[in-house]
Amino acid sequence: MALLKIENLHLDIGRIPILRDINLSVQPGEICGLAGESGSGKSMTALCVMNLLPAMARASGQITLTDTDLTRLSEEAMCAVRGQQISMIFQEPMTALNPLRTIGDQVAETLRLHRRASWPEAREIAAEKLARVGLPASRFSPDLYPHELSGGQRQRVMIAQAIALKPALLIADEPTTALDVTTQAGILSLLRDLVKSENMSMLLITHDLAVLADMADQISVMEKGRIVEQDSTKSLFRNRRHAYTRKLFAASGHVPDKGTAPSDRPLLQASKIGVTYRRKSGLFSKPVETEAVRGLSFALHENESLGLVGESGCGKSTLSRALLGLQPLSAGHIDFLGMRLDSSSQMPTDMRRAMQIVFQDPYGSFNPRHKVARLLAEPFHLQDQPVLGLQREKLLDKALEEVGLSSADKDKYIHEFSGGQRQRIAIARALVLKPKLIILDEAVSALDVSIRARILDLLADLRRTHQLSYLFISHDLHVVRAITDRVLVMRAGQIVEQGATETVLARPAHSYTKELIAATPQIPEAWQKPA
Questions:
Q1: Using one digit for the tens of pLDDT, what is the confidence trace for 417-463?
Q2: What's the chain's Rg over C-alpha atoms?
Q3: CB under 8 A, 24+ apart: contacts of 158-161
Q4: How far apart are CA 82 and CA 102, in angstroms?
Q5: For 4-250, which CATH class?
Q6: Which phi and psi angles does 2 have, rounded to 5°?
Q7: For residues 247-283, b (16+ Cβ closer than 10 Å) or e, as one string?
Q8: Quick check: 530 pLDDT over 70?
Q9: Domain ranges of the chain
């Protein structure tokens, strides 16, 4: 008998159809994968199960948990189901957790609400659950706040909160999307162990087919609010009966045409650079110094795509801020286009103009109150002469057209675009001053596989047409292999290995590089060949 059974589920929000004829079941002790692009209906299916739908939503069909029809329960009855029988792990723990409450109190709250436990009892159990997910009190006090933890640690708090009452069904909505490979491997291993040891079932929602290949017993593929293919994991990967499944599979392994080989001439050279943070833990305490980057040297050549990989906290983003002049150097110097930046100098305007960045979260890097025209024009303040009138309009139109958008998009707000379109606008903003180097900081990590493939093709085309160089920062080794010529492997503020991308990833020399590669989810080679 299925633990969860969804039959003929339809969902409309207002007059907009969202889900159509969804039929899905999850067996006891099973991990069921739900794959598809953003907007396909994956998360809305999960929210239907949790009955956490917006006010204008109208759902029909049947959702049965064991022998209880959840669609017939009142809100009060569903409150008793959530947490005790079904729990959900959301994609972004920093927005799901309360920043004003400690992690121990947030896990204990579940026990207080459902079991009427006293605070001492609830906090004791909360500490046990946090230890169960790898956050023992000896190293991670329950009195810590979410902002004091890393992304992977916050995700573990969410998992502790979700399993506090030992639910029968755990729904995990993109639980590892923004995490580096070793953290992702730890979270996935934890989830797999919890399903087995706690005798739970799991509905795993993700766009990463390699994660599903490693985790799921069966997979349902969703497109435009419908399930287009269902099968056991091995059979689905081998057969790929539906065209949309084949499209997702092709996009996940897409390799863009890199074009011409990079030049031997260095564009940027970093020589023994260091970045040190000084922070005080109290009003009268002495400042504590932390070396985020130390003694780091490398070269980036003209028309080269250089990858930079490593775990969160290794210093990748600190390095990018130092290159952009946003973080002062404590040692060494950077040479770029005949200009030098060191610990005693400010970044020259010409140097800043020739180096731009595309951030991971395009929505967070844009002011939502401004239209696209103003957002794209922000870099113009770096010009020696004001860019006004017809010249300004032509530059903005050209930048939009080069990234596959139209001049009419100038008059829209950023919320009117999809995630992939926002990233294109971010790339257009970086292009508008015709830079020589663009730093891409996790620029495709949160995108669906098909959108990611199109953005990678766009970046490859722009590199050819503009003779651009890229510093491509990413935790996704598949993407790094597809888009870069060389790669730097960074750990604890230092480069531990570098070389041609294919050489480093195929035959790693350093133990840390081997650890990163081993932690990367892989679709078994035998499954990649159609049956």
A1: 877 888 899 999 999 999 999 999 888 877 888 888 989 999 999 99
A2: 25
A3: 158/89, 158/90, 158/93, 158/96, 158/97, 159/89, 159/133, 159/187, 159/190, 159/191, 159/194, 160/107, 160/126, 160/129, 160/130, 160/132, 160/133, 160/135, 161/87, 161/106, 161/107, 161/110, 161/129
A4: 22
A5: alpha beta
A6: -70, 140
A7: bbbebbebebebeeebeeeebbebbebbbbeeeeeee
A8: no
A9: 4-250
| Cα separation, 360 vs 446, whole angstroms | 8
pLDDT in tens, 507-516: 999 999 999 9
**Which residue's entry shows tokens 């800043």?**
352
Under a CB-based contact definition with an 8 Å cutoff, are residues 355 and 436 in contact? yes
Pairing of strands 16-26, 68-69: unpaired
Contact 386, 380 (CB under 8 A): yes
Tokens, residue 2: 């299925």
CA separation for the pair 143, 162 (Å, rounded): 19
Handedness of CA 93, 97, 100, 103 (dihedral sign): negative
Residue 316 has pLDDT above 70, yes or no: yes
pLDDT tens figures, 482-528 = 999 999 999 989 999 999 999 999 999 999 999 999 999 888 888 88
Eight-class DSSP state of 259: -
Query: What are the tens digits of pLDDT across the range 377-416?
Result: 988 888 877 777 888 899 899 999 999 999 999 999 998 8
